[in-house]
Every structure is written in C-alpha cells, then in structure tokens.
Amino acid sequence: MYMGSVHMNKEAQFMRSNKTLRLLLYLAVIAISVLLIGGCTPNIEKLQNKQDVESLIKALNYEPDIKIRDNAVAALGEIGDKRAMEPLIEVLKDEDEEVPSWVLDALIKIGEPSVEPLIEVALKDEKVRGWVVDFIWAAKD
Predict the structure, then answer these.
(1) Beta strand segments in 1-141, E
(2) Which CATH architecture has domain 44-140?
(3) Binning pLDDT at 50, 70 and 90, where does residue 117 land?
(4) Which of 30, 70, 100, 121 is most buried (CB neighbours < 10 A)?
C-alpha cells in the first residue's frame, strides 16, 4: 500500500507539472500574440507630448487603424526630429493613397534635411518619384 501511494503522488505531481506547463505555454502564446499585434492602441497625443519619437515611428506601422498612422505621421512632423526622416520616407511606399500626402506634410515640416534622402529613394523607386516631385515643389515655397 505504501508503494501505491508513492506511485499516486508521482502521478499527481506529473499531472500538476503538466498543467503548469500547459499554463506556461498558453501564457507564452498570449505574450507572443500581444508582441506581434502590437499590444494596445498607441496613444499618439501622449507620445507626442512626451516627444517619444521612437514609439511614434513604431506607430507608423500600426495596421489596424489608419487614423493612428495618420496621427503618428503628423506628430512626427510637428516634433521635427531628423530621426523620423527615413521611417517617414519608407511610409511613402504605403498602399493607402492618403498616406503619402500626410508624409510629405511631415517631411516639409522637418525641412531641408529630408530633401536629399527623399531624392535618393525616388531615384530607386518609381512609386515614390511622383510624390517627391510634389514634395520638392511644396518645399521650395
């Protein structure tokens, strides 16, 4: 009888550890999902007030809501930090036709430092080229 209770204790321990492993796996899947999806909706106004350029740059790729991306572009333009130039230029390749005009407005606010990198991208990417012509005309005023 003693051996039977030892066997039952080991089996119970295995079942408890198996439940623990399943729970840990479940939590890991949730954590990975949150990281891949982006967690929660970025608060662009708060990020802009904190001048959090890095988080605003991440918000440029927030797929679930184009308004978030629009606001992130505008906030980066208002802040005027040069670190945003390259990510903003990449967003010019966006499939949504409204996005490039938002980006151009932001790049105009950043000013002259954004002209050269923008031209380099336009020479390589035909889609961006038309937007660059618009940008240059707007920036010259």
Answers:
(1) none
(2) Alpha Horseshoe (1.25)
(3) confident
(4) 100
